[in-house]
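Q: How would the structure tokens look for this protein?
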Amino acid sequence: MKTIVGLGNVGNEYKGTRHNVGFETVDKLAYDCGITLKKSRRFRAEVGEGRLGKTAIMLVKPATYMNLSGEAVLAILNFYKLPPSEIIIVYDDVSLPVGAVRVRERGGANGQKGMANIMALLGTNEITRVKIGIGEKPPAWTLSDYVLSRFLKEEHENMLKGITKASEAAEMIVNVGTAAAMNFFNAKEASCLLSD
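A: Here is the predicted structure in token form.
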């Protein structure tokens, strides 16, 4: 069972912040696939099961707050006896322009504490991830303040496109494989950046 995990922080005060684009991607997938997310005490997350094409999937929004996201992921993998290769993590990345999407099979956390916690608890960096750009931090801001800020009015359109692209990337990973998604989305993003 493929498990798609969107990272974010629970609570109304965090809705619409840059750090919650992973949650928003999972919400879009849930809507598109007709999957209802429900709170699970066992996993400390909102979870929902359904199908994406012919593949059984689970959608997950950890309720542990960002920095402890790995606790929910580890609980799910242990319960269902799933290897890390069955998960896809969707999260924000400050090194990418707003709305840009990158697919990776492995790598570091690049300062993203939720991803760092997942890799530490799972003991591997070979985890498929879909990164959504939230824009570079302004020099005068701290990183924590920036990721918890909301998008500017002029950024909204690109961000919505980014969430759509991220959900499409997750679907392609599930249905066709990570290599195909990397070839399609990473090349597409590179060509868009060159044409700007």
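The longest strand covers residues 45-52.

The longest helix spans residues 156-175.

Upvote if useful.
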